[in-house]
Amino acid sequence: MTTPPAWAPATPENHIDDPRARRFAASHPERPVPTREFVDTAPICLSPSSGLEELWRAIVPETRTRANDLHLPIVTAYATRLCDAYPEADREVVLVATALHDTGWAHVDESRIISEGFRGDWRKAAIRFEHEREGCRVARRVLPDLGYDDAFVERVCDIVDGHDTRHVAFSLEDALVRDSDRLWRFDRAGIAMSCSWFGMDPATYVDRLEEEILPELITDAAHQMAWADLARCRDLLRTEIIR
Ligand SMILES: [Fe+2]
Ligand SMILES: [Fe+2]
Predict the structure, then answer these.
(1) Buried b vs exposed e over 158-171: b needs ≥16 C-beta within 10 Å?
(2) How many whole angstroms from 182 Cα to the centroid of ligand 2?
(3) Tell me: the pLDDT tens digits for 140-159?
(4) Is residue 35 part of a domain?
(5) In the chain, how many domains are there?
């Protein structure tokens, strides 16, 4: 693991002119998006998410791929914290979209997940577009039976579709899901899984989190949580020495 693989840069310019992106940029001009609320930067294991039991039950089969049974609940815990920090966001949309966002991995060719989804130009890999499309299909299949109406389902799908491959947010809810998905990488469970998926040692990985992923976070609350997690993980993993 001496030569870390390259990560393609994010390409926000691809969607910057979309009317939804413009609207969100105009309504939230200050970046990172500030909050006046309390931001909980304690380890994420101290505040698990709650609720959505019926939804979780409905997507158990989808949690068995690509460590979704670790990823989705942890990301949803981060999303819950971000909703507390941005109470003006539609909490139900954020939490449902977060729980569902990666369920599509269960419906793509599993052998291609690591070979394409985490190697080379992984941000633009076809399999990433496929897992977003399949995630929307899961949402449209499970949510109506749980009592969600069409408008709600489409709002969720607007977030699931493009959550990895589109590099600008279309709404505050979209931004909170994106930030939660990235924040998981800063938790020790996310570091452990990501090091193995990307084939990187922990010291290299956390350095790259700071340099390349942290600047992509949209909200100030996410920045605060990421810095706190980063400092804790560096201490815990002794990355100053073990490199
Ligand atoms: Fe994803
Ligand atoms: Fe994800």
Answers:
(1) bbbbbbbbbbbbbb
(2) 7
(3) 999 999 999 999 999 999 99
(4) no
(5) 1
